[in-house]
Amino acid sequence: MFPWLLLALSVCVWPSTGLPPRHMDSVVEIVEALESTDHGFTGTVPELARALGGCSTPGCRAVLGEPPDVPPAPPTLSREQWLLFTQLLHHDAAAPERGAVLAPDGSTVALGPLLAGIEVGLKRATGWPVPAVEPPVDALYAVTIAEALGTSFLLARDGDGNRAALGPGGCWDDVDDPQNYTLLGPPSPIPDAIANGAMDGVLLGARLAREPIPLADLLRGYYGTGNGTEKGRPPSSYRRRDFGVLTGPEKLEEEVAAMLRVLRVLPPTQELLEDVGPEEVVAIARQAAQDFTEVYVECPAIVPRCMWGARPYRGTPKLLTLPLGSVYIHHTFTPSTPCRTFAACAHAMRSMQRFHQDTRGWDDIGYSFVVGSDGYLYQGRGWHWVGAHTKGYNSKGYGVGYVGDFSAALPDPDIIALVRDGLLPCAVRTGRLHHNYTLRGHRQMGHTDCPGNSLFREIETWHGFKVDAELRGISRGWRLGCLVWSSMTGRMGVW
């Protein structure tokens, strides 16, 4: 009855007939070519994107108007570039993540909401009048996140209780030449790629409204280039923090509720909302805003195993019994240098896993999660499987390892906060960690300097830190980062 509301497919595969990689670098090159000369289209690049289907939902059309006609292929683009651009902007309600590309920071971003937000920002910079939509909406939120979020939670309300309203994430077939993207769980109208594109659309649209700059420059400055940047973290890696600063839950709830009221009077969506009363609209909007904020603002992004190139687990993993009561903080010692790009952190993960499996003979990388200085957490054993990080205590707590040697220096402040203020409170809220959990450094559980003097002094100030841990079954040993040779057992192990 509402074909544009169909849920996403779990696997997105496109013909890979020599097209450029589905990477933000390819998009920047296309945008730069379109901006460099007369591209045969009288509007802006975001308007061209809308002509190609990037803003095809009823709410987006109500705010930005009917899309322009599709122009002929611009002479400034190669056939392959034009085909890629049209594929990325063609709206497919059955698989909204098909319009996504891999960003240099390792995140995946849908172009539709990104370019819709950018179009609103450009229009506002030129004195665009407020759209004649009743009830009034904030156009920037309406075309990026409010309609999609309200619709997703409306559909979940009408479902059987098992329909996902947010997520999931996914993985690319090849991070160096991304072509096919696979979702990692039950699909929803807002997979992570849509959420990222929407948050970026809000942030970049707001920036353009204040200070218009060429779109290619904006995208290159925000996302960086390649699979990492030598200049440090790109601004895109701060999207969750920056979106949270700009958009509180109250603002998001307000805009979702307003958009649901707009959808109530639009012919394509009237029937969907005919039995939804005013109080229920408010309740749906409140739940949508709260859940989105928890998942995409308060909880940190975690790079899945398939994105960093993990080998398979050897043997059969053992299931943890949740919630757990402890967290053990480590530093990797080797690699000794913090990783500051997606490419460097992914390489560090593969190196550690190879060392743990091939040299130590373990089933997998030992840590539950690893912390990169690129602003992302990396999934090791994850939330549900027993790790190999703190001997004798692996089934009792999560092992979280910071990449680097933090004997004499600290991780960057925002990387410290990633665990202290992000991962740990998120684990409590989601039922994976007891609210009264205890936190210890690895050295408290074994004969090791891990996690280094500087980092240990830091975690002594964290919530849940426990100072009276007993060292049980510890023999004399010589220290090697977080790995100890035991004179009692005659072999190397994790203590």
Q: Describe the main β-sheet briefly.
A: 6 strands, mixed
Query: Quick check: average pLDDT?
Result: 89
Low-confidence stretches: 1-16, 471-481, 483-495
Radius of gyration: 24 Å
Layout of secondary structure:
Blueprint: E1 11-12, H1 24-36, H2 45-51, H3 58-64, H4 79-89, E2 100-102, E3 108-110, H5 111-125, H6 139-158, E4 170-172, E5 181-183, H7 192-210, H8 215-223, H9 239-246, H10 249-265, H11 278-298, E6 302-303, H12 305-308, E7 324-331, H13 342-359, E8 369-371, E9 377-379, E10 397-402, H14 413-429, E11 433-441, H15 453-459, E12 477-480, E13 483-486, E14 491-494
Parallel strand pairs: 6-9, 7-10, 7-11, 8-10
Antiparallel strand pairs: 1-5, 2-3, 4-5, 8-9, 12-13, 13-14
Summarize this entry quickly:
The protein has 15 helices and 14 strands. It is α/β, with parallel strands linked by helices and 495 residues long.
For this entry, give a set of tags.
single chain, 495 residues, alpha/beta, six-stranded mixed beta sheet, three-stranded antiparallel beta sheet, 15 helices, 14 strands, globular, disordered C terminus
